[in-house]
Amino acid sequence: SIVVPQGHPLCACEPLTLEAIAEHPIVTYVFGFTGRSRLDAAFSACGLTPEVVFTATDSEVIKTYVQLGLGVGIMASMAFDPQRDEGLVALDASHLFEASTTRIGFRRSAYMRAYMFAFIETFAPHLTPAVVQQAIEARTPEQREAIERLLEPVLESTGD
């Protein structure tokens, strides 16, 4: 997403383009973090060199810089909450950048506490404790593929 203050000129840009974004100072993730290399590749493929004025490893910092008027933010869509991020607007940029995948990792041998299952489900509601437990218990490629096939309709509908 491109995150801007309400009323920003990019809000009226239809369709949103990399050229239009590159006209503004940019606040985004540190290189090598959260898909930043894909962002750089997208601009480079269009022959553009964006002016990245600030970088951060945290989306909350990016949003704060945008609120302070230091630039437009480029960040993961999942990090934007319209109710919490009052005064900001997230513009869909999925057509401009290659998708990135966020992963949660844990040791298969770790004891999964209730809060861990709750966190995973908050992050990805389709990953219920039962599904996560099935994934933990899957030992063969065939068992893992069976779980993936079960999740395919959910993943397609969420765009994950």
What does this structure look like?
- It is a single chain.
- This protein is of the alpha/beta class and 160 residues long.
- It has six helices and five strands; from the N terminus they run E-H-E-H-E-H-E-E-H-H-H.
- The chain has a five-stranded mixed beta sheet, with helices on one face.
- The radius of gyration is 18 Å and the shape is elongated.
- Overall form: elongated
Extended strand count: 5
Strand order of the largest sheet: 3-2-4-1-5
Strand content: 5-15%
Which ranges are low-confidence, i.e. pLDDT below 50, for 5 or more consecutive residues? Answer: none
Provide the succession of SSEs. Answer: EHEHEHEEHHH
User: Radius of gyration in whole Å, from Cα?
Assistant: 18 Å
Summarize the structure.
By secondary structure, the protein is α/β, with parallel strands linked by helices. It has six helices and five strands, in the order E-H-E-H-E-H-E-E-H-H-H.
Topology:
Layout: E1 2-5, H1 18-22, E2 26-29, H2 36-45, E3 52-56, H3 59-67, E4 72-74, E5 88-91, H4 114-123, H5 129-137, H6 141-158
Parallel strand pairs: 2-3, 2-4
Antiparallel strand pairs: 1-4, 1-5
Based on the model shown, name its key terms.
160 residues, alpha/beta
